[in-house]
Amino acid sequence: MKYDAVIIGAGAAGLLCAATAGAMGKNVLLVDHAKRPGKKILISGGGRCNFTNYYIEPEKYLCENPHFCKSALSQYTQWDFIALVEKHNIKYHEKTLGQLFCDDSAKEIVAMLVKECEQAKVTLQYQSNVTDIQQTTNGFSLFVNEQSISCKSLVIASGGLSMPKLGATPFAYKVAEQFGLDVLPTRAGLVPFTLHQELKESLGDISGVSVPVIAGNERIQFNESMLITHRGLSGPSILQISSYWQPGETIYLDLYPSNSFDEFLEKAIGSQGNQTLKNTLAEIFAKRFADKFIELHKLDNVPIKQLTHATKQKLNNLVHKWEIQPNGTEGYRTAEVTLGGVDTDQLSSKTMQVKGKEGLFFIGESVDVTGWLGGYNFQWAWSSGYVAAQHV
Fold it and tell me: Are 32 and 144 contained in the same domain?
C-alpha cells in the first residue's frame, strides 16, 4: 500500500495532523499500537480534557531553544482549536487561569478528532505494530502488522514516556536515533513529589489537605494550591514547579501567599492575645494543617501574647519560606508529560520536518517542548500537528 503520509501515533498531535492533512486532499494512514485512539486525552483534566488555554504564550513552554515553539503556536492558535470545538457544538468552560475544559466529557474531543479524520477519508488502523522503517528514494517504507507500506512523508507522533500504563513507549526516540538525531535526556514533568521518610510519615497523617501556596525555587514560582498526599506533595503548584526542579534541589513554599503573616500575627496579638498559637494558625490554615505545622516545627502552643521576638521571626520565615527538599518524584507512572526528547535544533520550527531528511517529521510530546499545566501541552500537540500537516 502507498500513502502520501503515514502518521504513527493516534494521540492529540497525530489525530489533528491526520485530519488536517486528509482535509487537504492527502492520502493518509494513521496507525497506533493501542486498541483505540486518544487514550491520554480521555483521562486528562479529570476526564473533562483541559484542551487549551486562553493565554497561550511561548514563555510558558520549556525547551532548550526557547524560541522554537513560537512559529507553530502562531500558525495554529488556541482560537483555531476553540473554533473547531465550537463547530462540533462541544460545550466548554473556563475553570481557572484561562484553562478550558469540556462541560461534559473528554470523549467529545476524541470523537470530534476521529470524525474529522473520517470526513477527511483518513485510514485509521489500531493495534498496529510498526517495524523496519527505512528511508527510500521516494520517501519511506515500513511494515505495519507485517504488511509492507510506502509513503512520501512519515510523521512520528507517538508521544513520550509519561503514563506507561496508557501505552507510552520510547518508540519516537528510537526512530530519531535510527536516523542519527540527538535525543535530549528525558525526565518526568508535571509530576508529584515524593518526600524523605520522616516528613512523608508526618504529613501522611493529614493526607488530602489542600493549601493555597506559592511554590518556587531560585528560578520561578507558581501561585496555586498544593495537595498533601500519603506519598508526598501534589496539586497544581507542585506539578508546575516539578518541571523546573532538579534532583537535590530545595523548593520554597509560601503558605500565606499575597499576605503578610507578621501583620496578621501582630493584629491577632492586639485583639486576642490569650488565644493559643494553634487556634490562631487555624484562622488562616485548615485546622489539621495548623496542628501538624506546630508539631513538625516543634513550636510551643502558648497564648500568642507570650511569643518571643525570635519565635515570631521563626514563624514568619516558616510560613513565608518553608524549605523542603523533595526525595524525588513519582516518575513517569503519574507524570502528565515528558521533559526532553527529540532535539529541536534538528527540526524546522516552521514545518516540524527534520533538517536534511525530507519527509520525516516529529510532533507533539516526542519533541523537546513541554508546556505548563493548564492546556498548554494539548495546544502544542494541536499546533505542531497542524504545522506538519501543511508540509507532508
Answer: yes
